[in-house]
Amino acid sequence: MINQGWSYREQVDRRSAGQTVLEYYTCHYRHSSPSEWQERIVLGQVLLNDRVTTAEERLQAGQWLTYHRPPWEEPEVPLAFEILYEDDDLWVIAKPAGLPVLPGGGFLEHTLLWQLQQQYPQDTPIPIHRLGRGTSGLMLLARSPLARAQLTQQMRDRQIRKVYRALVGVGDLEDGFTITQPIGKLPHPVLGYVYGATSNGLPAHSECQVLQRRSDATLLEVTILTGRPHQIRIHLAAVGYPLLGDPLYDVGGVPRLASFSHPEKVPVPGDCGYHLHAYHLTFTHPGTGRSMNMTCPAPPELWG
Hints:
The chain is of the alpha+beta class and 304 residues long. It has two domains: 6-69, Roll (Structural Genomics Hypothetical 15.5 Kd Protein In mrcA-pckA Intergenic Region, Chain A); 82-302, Pseudouridine synthase (2-Layer Sandwich), CATH 3.30.2350. The chain is built from five helices and 18 strands. The chain has helices at 21-28, 34-42, 112-119, 145-156, 231-238, and strands at 6-11, 46-48, 51-52, 64-69, 82-86, 90-95, 126-127, 136-142, 161-168, 176-179, 183-188, 192-197, 206-213, 218-224, 249-250, 254-255, 276-284, 291-295. Strands 5, 6, 7, 8, 9, 10, 13, 14, 17 and 18 form a ten-stranded mixed sheet that branches. A four-stranded antiparallel sheet has the order 1-4-2-3. Helix 1 (21-28) packs across helix 2 (34-42). The radius of gyration is 21 Å and the shape is globular. It starts with 5 loop residues before the first strand and ends in a 9-residue tail after the last strand.
C-alpha cells in the first residue's frame, strides 16, 4: 500500500552555514546519492524558506529546509499489537518484533506511533523509552502532559526498571556479570554514524544473569540501568557475545560494514534477526503514585 508521503522540515545551524543545498543533503543524509538529491532539488521537492531553491544556493544559519518526500510503498511489517494497560495518562503496549516505533528510513505509517494515532486520533502518544525495530515486548507511552513529565523524570532518575530476555551463543559466561562499556557514536557509511562501543562514549550499565545454558545458545536476563541506544546489543557484543542473529553488531560492540549473506548491503540498526525481548517493566504511575509491575510473555525461543 502506498502511503501519503511526508515533509521533513529542519533549520540550518551555524555549522552548516555556507554549504550549498546539495552539499547539505548529501552530507547529512547519505542514504541517497548526490545525483538523487540533485534530481529532487530540480523537481522542486526541496524548499528553502518555503520557496523553490537550486542545488548551488548557499545556506545561512536560521533558514528552513523542507524536503517533500513523495508517497512510497513501505516494507511489510507486523502491524498488530496488544495494549496491556491504558488509562488517561499512559499506555503499556506489547510491541511485536519487526514493527518500528518511530517514523524513519522507509517507515512512516508502518510504525507503532502511526498505528496508535489511528486508534486514538485525539491523543499524541509520547514514547518514554524506545525499542529497536527487531526487539519485542513492553513499551511505555505517555498520554498526558503530566505522564510525559513525570515518567521522563523517572527515566532520568533511573527509577524505571527494565528487564529483558536475550539469546547469545554458547560460552563460559559467569552466572552473573556486569557490563559498563561506554557507548558513543561511530562512523557509518550510509547513516553517517551509529552507536557502538567506544572508549570516550557516555556511561552505560547493564546487569546480566544466565537463565539457561543450552547446547546451542545461552539465555540471559538483562537489566539495564541506563538507556543508551541499542545498549544490550552493543554491551553483549562488546564482551564477546553478540545477540544470535544480530546483523549489525559484531564481537567488540562495533558495527559490521557488510552483511555475510548480502555483502553488497551495509547493515543498519533497524535490520532484524536478533533475539531480544522487553520482558518486565516497573515504574510509578504518574497519576496515582502506585507501583506498576508489567510483564510481557517472551517468544518461545526466549522462555526460561
